[in-house]
Structures are given as structure tokens and as C-alpha cells.
Design a protein that fits this description.
By secondary structure, the protein is an alpha/beta fold. It has 13 helices and 20 strands. The strands form five sheets. Strands 3, 7, 8, 11, 12, 19 and 20 form a seven-stranded mixed beta sheet that branches. Helix 6 crosses helix 12. The radius of gyration is 21 Å and the shape is globular.
Length: 386
Amino acid sequence: FFWKIKMALLFRQVLSRAIPTQARMASTRACLLKSVGNLEMADVEINEPFTSRDVRIDIKSVGVCGSDVHYYTHGVIGPFVLNQPMVLGHEAAGVVTEVGSDVTHLKVGDRVCMEPGIPDPFSKESMLGMYNVDPKVRFWATPPYHPSLVEDPAWSNGHGCCRPSVVHPGNFTFKIPDHVSFDEAALVEPLAVGMHACTKAKIKPGDIGLVTGAGPIGMLAALAALASGCARVLVVDTVMEKLKVAETLAPAGKIMGIKADGETLEKVLAETGGSGADVVLECSGNGQALAGSVKLACPGGTIVLVGCPGETNIDIGEMQVRELRTESVFRYAHMYPKTVSLLNSGAIDVKPIITDHYEFEDAAEAFKYMVDPKPHTIKTIIHVAH
């Protein structure tokens, strides 16, 4: 706890030193969500102030996330409501092209990935080290709902990063190794979600993990669970093609795919000695999967809510008599350095889940494709610049 307070104080001190310079209103090509179901490539005027603590980055690769797709199809996720046009994209990597005078750890030409959520350094949440739950966080491709952001001309749209260049705080910009591609580095963002989930799960060496949902987050969470100490991870999904991909992500036997059907519980119990998994990471966002996870966890086990199922009926009595522990996660905090280190060491390889590629001018089609992708598709990458 005390290290979180210390880091929060330093974090607040560093960000509060930024010296503002002239705001930059510039026209840029971008993948613009104009309204629900109305997405196209367009020229957009974006107001991006540049301070002494910022860097400018030429974007190379952008990952398509399920939240981007949900805004396109529904226009709302929880309290975040699309009220005006917004540039999509929050998973990105690129090259530094300009460095603010107070940024000392980066230089022009550095290959980087960016943590897309920038909190208020003076908030209670930031002071506690939980900056990811700060209601005033500025998160790429997320409509703001806090009044201070809605009224900010530089952030009222909540623009994302599917555009050629962005301005970003140096403190949330991380160098990547030369042997890690821009496509891989763009996946640091969703991998950080899995890392945060496993950290909160308090995985112990030798634990048996179980992931519900074999989408990108579920697969990356499975890899994070193995890196955190799990001996094996079972992955449950309805799509066999995705389960087959999941099984290729680690040495034979480390990840086992289980088809979700009427016999899921029996299959899980057979693979766990009759007791269930030590840790269940619910990544599907499906209410039925969350309710069923209660029976998939072993006595004293942990269920981590990663997906966002909304209101769900869950058997609390069943949880009590087996003393199950629950944790919830919202994005991540303090995970980027560790995640980059895992990619650098080779402990986690994300390349197999990158299945589809689009050029920048076809970015709108990439997001539309992910509304109903083919069964083999896991992760789609947009190449903004080569």
C-alpha cells in the first residue's frame, strides 16, 4: 500500500510540472465515428495542446478493440455515451517525432507504445495509486462524461489514435525493444488488462487457471496467467476455431480448449481433479458465463470479472458456502512496464493472435468487419504508416 502512495505522489508531482504551450489545432486524416452505425475515413480538426511533458508520436499500428466496435454498433458503454463524432482506436504503437523539454527518458526516433488513459494527478484515485478508476481519466476513443472533460475543447470528443500522429504525455509513453514489432507493441494495451486481472487474482505457482471467452482479451489473459505462475489454463468458448488458436499459444498441454456446451462443468471437473479451477478469469462479458463461473471455481477459489456483462443473476449462496472470492478490474494500472518486459523476454508471444491486417485508408472497414468477423479472426491490426 505504501509504495502505491509513494508512486502516486511522484506521479502527481511529475504531471503537475507540465508547462503548457500554444494549443495546436490541426487537420488530420482519421477513422471517425460520426454516430451509431456511421463510420468513415474523414479529415478532422483536432485540438491537441503540447506541453513540456508531452511527446508527439507518428502512429504505426493500431489494434481494433471490442469497445471500439461496441461504440460503432451501440454508441454507449456504461456511463460513456457517444454524443458527438469521435476518432476510434486506443491500442497503438509508433515512433517519437517530437519531445517536450521536460521529457528525459525519450528521444526522437524511439519506438514506443502508449498507455491510453491519462488521469487527473490530483484526484483521490490517483493519490491511492488507482488512477485507472479516476472518473476524470482521459482515455482514447472513450466519450467523456465528467463535466470537466465535457467542457474541455481539447477533450470533449474523446478522440482516439487511429490517425497518423498524436500528442501524448511522456510519462505514459514506453520504449519498446527493437525485436518487438509495432503490431505486437499495439497489443501491450489488451495484454495489460490480462496482467491486471492476474495481479488482482493473486495467482500462486502451480494454480490451475480457467478463462471464459477466447477473444483477444481472453487469450492474452490466459498467457498472462501462465506467466504469473499457473501450471495450466483451461479456455472455454463456443467457437472451436478460436479454441484451436488458443492451444497454440503455449507449449503443448499448457492451454487446453474446452467447448462451451451442456457438459462444460463435467469437462472442467475432469481436468481439475474434481474440484474446479483455482482462478477463473471471466473475459467473455456474457452474463450466463459469469453465473456459471461460480461452479467452475474450486472451493476457496477466485473469480475475476474482466468482461462487462451488465446486470446478471449470480448465486451468492453458492459462493458463500464455498468461500469464493471475487475481484473486478477496470482496464489496468501500473501494468505497462511489466507487460513490455514480458514481451521483451519472450515469456509471452502475442504474434499468433494477430490474424487480420488492414491499411489505414481501409480502417473504417476493419472496424466494421469486426462486428461479425469470420471464426478464425482473433485480432485485427490497422497499419497507419509503414
